Amino acid sequence: MLDLLGETMKRLDVIGNISRDLTRYPDDRGGYRLGGAALFLSLAATEAGRRAAPVCVLGSDLAHLVEVPGLDTLDWSAHIQVDGASTIFDLEYDLHGELVGVGTEDYGVAEGLTEHALRHVDLHPRHTYHVCCRRPLNVAAVLDRLGGNGTDFSVDFFLPSAEAMIRAAAPWLPKATTLFVNAAEYRLLEQVIDSRTLPEVVVTDGPRAAVVRRFGRQVASAVPPPHPPREVSGAGDTLAGTFLAHRSQGATAAQALAEATAAAARYVAAPSLPIPAPRRG
Q: What is the pTM of this model?
């Protein structure tokens, strides 16, 4: 019983979307692929040795993911599947891998994510959570529930919606164990909250040095290995999942950051998440 409890407490429950994405670059890279922060982050954490469960809503078109080789390493017990289509995000990048445009016509079944997440948190208040602060999630409602329960949680943001999401999340951010932002998001964060109140912030900056700040003071940095990027969508989630996994296993911030930047660099050089066809029969 104690072993089972210990294993449950180690699990990282990742609240976020799983989607069908179209990525586009000026040099014709990209195409249709699986997407969603809950998927990328959970996979990275699992690869780094931490059990992870996407807390997500899968549409009919992606219901078969739980059986796909390579994805069956995830703990799928926290997802629900409903009839309907998954979100399709159209992500446009420049040659340097900077996101210049994002669009979606319909969030599809992800509109039910907030209700599902709140129900899951109520059932499992002592689990450890990561919240992918993306639309259409009601971030304030979810963080209020986590903060009120005294639950351990970390968060990350997505630049196109970061300003609104950071403002919505601000009252609960000092309670977060770790925040993940890129350099532009960190500037937005500083406009909303005193960084000296934040226990741990991981700031990435593309191919430049990533840093960890603890209560406003830099305590670690790491320069990602130079790998030519083929696909950058999901790189930040890969870094976050890897970092959280290593920190949970006792690594220092510097050790975890080195592992995380290396994992993200490997990912952008060789991404491998095409949309799998459902099994027949």
A: 0.90
